[in-house]
Amino acid sequence: MIEKKGKKLNLKNIPVSVEDTNPQSTYFVITEFSDILTSGKNAIALNGSNLLKANSSIQIEVLDVKGDPLYTEIARTSDTIRYRDGVSLIVAIYVYGSTPLGTGEIIILGELKSGGTVRWKRNVNINSKIANSTKVRFYETPELHTKPILSDIFGSTSNFPTSSVGSVYSLAVSPAVGTNFLLYDINRKEVDYRILRTTGGSFSSFMEGSDIIFSNINGTTESFSTKVEQVISENSMRVSSPYIVTQNASTKIVSTFSSANYSITYVPLLLGNLVKPVVTGSEDAKYFKQSLAEITLQNLKTFSGNVYRFRLYRKSLNTNFDSECIADELLESREVIVDEANPNRLGENIGYFFNPDHIARYWFPSTITISGSFSNDPLADGMFISESIIQSSSIIQDRHFVLAKDFTTGSNRDSVYVPFDSAEDIIGSGSAHDSNFIKLFKNVEYVFSANVVGFNTNPQNQGGLSFYLTGSQYSFSTSNLFDGYGIKLLDVILPKNVAEKHYGRIETSFIVNQDVNGTMVIAPYNGNFIISKVSIKPSQAFSFSPEILNIRVPFAVDVKNARYQIRAELFDVNSNQIPVKLETTEFFDPDGITLAKISSSLFSNIVNSPPGFADFDFINPTVETIHVLSSSQIDGNLTVFGNAFLTASQAISSSYAKTSSLSIAINAVSASYSLSSSYAVTSSNLDVDSSFSSSIDRLFQIGTFYFWVSGSGASAVLRLKDGSAPTTENDGKPVA
């Protein structure tokens, strides 16, 4: 967030004719005032009096405990007309998290009707740790907009807890070793206590928020536990509290340890291939859709106060049912560089480079030499990019780059931008959508941020890294078109003769002048760079609410072309409803596509095969035909799971295990496509046991696959490597 700065007026030192000592002011008539200025936009209301000169100016200065001015603003409806709440003139006073706590002073100076000047001043307590409860006033009337969406349903992966153990040592940055932690003000000062790995599994950002246990500290039986605050790299993390040595009830000393064992249980991200289920019942099966509502609350920028919470309601206009609440949440800034279709919320942030699969799915280098590979050191969950070209005016547009794309289709998975298409934007799917998945709204302040480390490969020349927004909707002009890539958000400069530089968290704020969809381009020159946690969010800080809310909520319907009334309510921090009317009506699912049913076999459990699977005879093997209906390639690992039986009910015992083999074969044939020899599989042996499995890496595309198992009778089920069922329907036999 851009922190606005106040202007020093020195009003307390100006000679005046009258000192107004009335706490509510005889001359300015203060009708709204709080003795405590809290975080956010505080308001003071002045009614004025006939003692002041008509149409004269009023000066206001608010000083913090250090005597520095706070930003103040008089509300206006135009350049010349001041906004009034009733008859009161409203002034907003901004208090940020960086504003020092303590006693400040408000000073108001005006001109008297009788000549001369008058001054009113009053001490005020400033506390940026307290949430803002000032009356909410908006610059413009808030608006509610709704867009119906029919979105594909994607199969999801299962994420299971995993454990990591190893040995570590610690480092106390703040507070320092020897500090009495009971006297350290954690409300005003950050706790920075580092854990550094010596052995064991690499640290992962998915450990953040998890409990970590340290034992055998310095070779003793001492132990302690805390939470992981931030993973810095694969070898370093910051925890929420330091290791403490208690001397007595009033003395707890910050300490470090040179050796300890650690253990942590956390949930990692497993990215599998997303598979679109189909509606069964016909050869021309349609992709199953779900109904969503994209809801946008605009013009939420406040002049004073803070919008803390919102509720959304819907009421069917096709039935006589009452309204139902579909969302009740805090009004918080939402990441915009996300994969909205990803059912795995752990992996939705496209700018967070969780693993190599994540980068390969969403980020595309213009050339292989730029890399775009995964790196976990010196930044956790980083992307490594490299460029040897030295920047100059003649070749700046020839720099290589990486480009981000959403993942809703298997086509155009490269660095070539596909222009915006409104039809694909409505359904939230397609190659044009994937190149324009970042949605920004005009006149809203956004914050771009990223972690960056740079390595200068040619120290005698300057290196750098540039971040751009690009898209076919932008109205480019000479003022905002940079280097042929789009709107430049930020330049990171790597100076000459600097071999390595750690920039920390870089950040900038920006505003676009129109509603746009686009994507991000990252272009380096003369250096190697590791970036992580690339983010764009509407600007927000404690008690400064975001200026816009854009979310998608599930919106199931009972009839086609269902008409609904949608209503929103806004609340302040004390749960007082803000008096603003937000209401609209919209039609959903005009053709009733979402009312179709899905075959339950597509979601069968990976461990327990569904009943009715075909038995395959050892002597006369059965051929099972499977039609793959995906419209896009499924690049994955096809695994055969099953149980082998001597009879229909008797499993092979361990004494008979691995005495012979089952075999499978998979090939693809269709009228227009067949697998090449490099992809085709002729056989794969499976050892007979009470259960068996085998995996085959292949690129599966639309076509007909023939699958058979020969052995001592077996039932089998096909799964992709993420555990989901392939998108198939068969020739009348149970789906394998």
Brief summary of the model shown:
2% of the residues lie in helices and 43% in strands.
Q: Which strand order does the major sheet show?
A: 13-14-17-16-15-20
Q: Please give the share of residues in helix.
A: under 10%
Low-pLDDT residue intervals, each spanning 5 or more residues: 272-287, 392-396, 476-482, 597-736
In terms of DSSP E residues, the strand content is 35-45%
The total strand number stands at 46
CATH architecture of the largest domain: Sandwich
Domains counted in the coordinates: how many?
Answer: 5
User: What is the arithmetic mean of pLDDT?
Assistant: 77
Structural class: mainly beta
The DSSP helix count reads 3
Question: What can you see in these coordinates?
Answer:
The chain has three helices and 46 strands. A six-stranded antiparallel beta barrel has the order 13-14-17-16-15-20. Strands 25, 28, 29, 31, 32 and 34 form a six-stranded antiparallel beta sheet that branches. Strands 1, 3, 5, 9 and 10 form a five-stranded mixed beta sheet that branches. The longest helix is centred in the middle third of the chain and has 7 residues, at 356-362. The chain is globular and about 80 Å long.
